[in-house]
Design goal:
CATH class of the domain at 39-136 and 355-367: Alpha Beta
Strand content: 5-15%
CATH architecture of the domain at 39-136 and 355-367: 2-Layer Sandwich
Distance between the termini: 27 Å
Order of helices and strands: HHEHHHEEHHHEHHEHEHH
Helix content: over 70%
CATH topology of the domain at 39-136 and 355-367: Alpha-Beta Plaits
Strand order of the largest sheet: 2-3-1-6
CATH superfamily of the domain at 39-136 and 355-367: EIF_2_alpha
């Protein structure tokens, strides 16, 4: 669409656009006029809690229906004049905002008037202080229950500090797991010591039957001569047997052979005597190896026995600790049950949430200088912007669905005829 066509469409539908813009501005004005002005009062509380969840416990006390009912009895008619009595509690909880943080609780209350919102929030803090003081007042039953709860927690903390037991079941499980590990180590040490003792017995028996020294023969240069003499003697003995089959013992041939044999025997006897004189004794290497193995086995056996004794001592210590823990665990369970019972009684006595010591006011209930919600000029600006957008959208839709033929573009679009020229209309 050309700029001329756009200008024509805006001029043609200017009344519709102006009506749409005025309607949106009127809606914004009506919203400002009809919406009630809300003011917000804020306060901050400091909690010096005796337990880690002090801020959460204080927030629970601030959400108590009893406190809300006391505040509504005093300020309900002025805070919610048009709200039925049965719905005022829900409206008050909707307008009350509680934001607990670490050690702090920030709360705010919305109301139709700044001073009224601040007074109502201050009244809530006053009722909170009265309720907390009532719990810790020595003269009433609530104070006695509070003291009992504090004493139960102190006894439990003292017992845990004295015995070192934080959680009985967890400590017992850790000790039982460690005892199982030690039991396995003790069994392994016993098996190792038994095997080493058996091996040492076998080695000592071998040492008893193995000689420490053995004879060592030194071969001399006469060894070859002795071997030749033995061979010669064997040969002479063989020839003697052959000759005896042919000749008499008294024959010269036999006598000469025997004389030669005696010479060889004498030589061989001298050589054997010389060899026997040269035989010496030495250390038995087998005995040395067995002895070294026995020494190593004995050292390993001593180390295994030391580990076995250490494991047995640790087992005895763990057994005594488990026995002591069994008695201490019963006491711990009784103290925990007493603490839970005291806290439960105190909770039932004080309503929602238990009492908290050390509540301080960091900032008292004060109302802001401006009401809650967007400023009137913001509402009117948003309404005007929406009016402009809707006016342009309305003009575009009206132009698109219009059946009038005014411009050459309308002629070409609706009739499908080309426009060659235009003749201005004479007035």
């Amino acid at each position: 669409m050309s700029a001329r066509a756009v200008a024509h469409a805006l001029f043609r539908h200017q009344r519709k656009m102006l009506a749409t813009l005025l309607l949106c501005l009127a809606g914004g004005g009506a919203t400002i006029a009809l919406s009630p002005v809300q003011w917000r009062a804020e306060a901050t509380l400091l909690v010096e809690a005796s337990r880690p969840d002090g801020a959460g416990a204080l927030a629970a006390m601030l959400e108590s229906r009893d406190l809300h009912a006391q505040v509504l009895n005093r300020f309900g008619d002025r805070l919610y004049p048009a709200v039925p009595l049965a719905q005022r509690a829900d409206a008050f909880r909707h307008d009350l905002h509680i934001r607990p943080a670490e050690g702090l609780v920030r709360l705010s209350l919305d109301g139709p008037d700044a001073a009224l919102a601040a007074d109502a929030l201050g009244g809530l803090l006053d009722r909170l202080a009265e309720k907390n003081r009532a719990v810790f007042t020595p003269q009433d039953a609530g104070g006695e229950l509070a003291r009992q709860a504090v004493q139960a927690r102190e006894k439990l903390a003292a017992f845990r500090k004295r015995t070192g037991i934080t959680e009985g079941s967890a400590d017992k499980a850790a000790l039982v797991r460690r005892r199982g590990e030690l039991d396995g180590e003790t069994s392994a040490a016993e098996a190792e010591a038994s095997a080493l003792a058996d091996r040492l017995t076998v080695l000592k028996a071998r040492l008893a039957t193995t000689p420490a020294t053995i004879e060592l023969t030194n071969e001399s240069e006469r060894t070859k001569v002795a071997e030749d003499a033995r061979a010669k003697l064997f040969e002479l003995q063989t020839r003697e047997a052959e000759l005896l089959g042919k000749y008499q013992d008294t024959s010269v041939t036999v006598q000469n052979l025997r004389a030669e044999k005696r010479k060889v025997e004498e030589l061989l006897g001298k050589l054997e005597t010389t060899t026997q004189n040269r035989v010496t004794s030495g250390t038995n290497p087998v005995y040395q190896d067995v002895e070294k193995d026995a020494f190593r086995t004995e050292a390993a056996l001593s180390a295994a026995k030391a580990r076995l004794k250490s494991s047995q001592r640790q087992l005895a210590d763990l057994d005594s600790r488990l026995a002591a823990l069994a008695g201490s665990e019963r006491v711990l369970v009784e103290l925990e049950q007493a603490t839970v019972a005291a806290d439960s009684q105190l909770t039932r006595r004080t309503g929602s949430g238990a009492a908290i010591e050390g509540i301080g006011i960091v900032s008292s209930a004060t109302a802001g200088s401006r009401p809650v919600g967007p400023a009137p000029w913001v509402v009117m600006a948003v309404s005007g912007g929406m009016g402009v957008v809707l006016a342009l959208l309305l003009a575009a839709l009206a132009q698109k669905f219009s059946t009038r033929i005014v411009t050459p573009a309308d002629v070409e679009r609706r009739l499908g005829l080309p426009v060659l020229t235009t003749i201005p209309r004479e007035s």
